[in-house]
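Slides due. Your pick:
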Amino acid sequence: MGLFGIFGNKKKKITDFQSRGAIILDVRTKGEYDSGAIPGSKHIPLQQVSVRLADIKKWNKPVITCCASGVRSGSAAAILRSNGVEAMNGGGWASLYKKLEH
């Protein structure tokens, strides 16, 4: 499968998550988030994801994580999945925003 297939699948997964009311979780620092973010996204810095698991589980929705480049959001998605939350790494917030159904 080429690169376009991989990106196409990610877009499909994002659309699937969105159709089920997914929450966008931005795990950047407060300063990064305040300088620009996806409208309606929730903000929990990566360092706080583990201690805020109970809050996140209360959402009872799939979660699409994002950050600046995709590294921190990958870590956050892994933490969430290992704790029973359906989560995917949406990557960098700006590129994720372009893939979202508006």
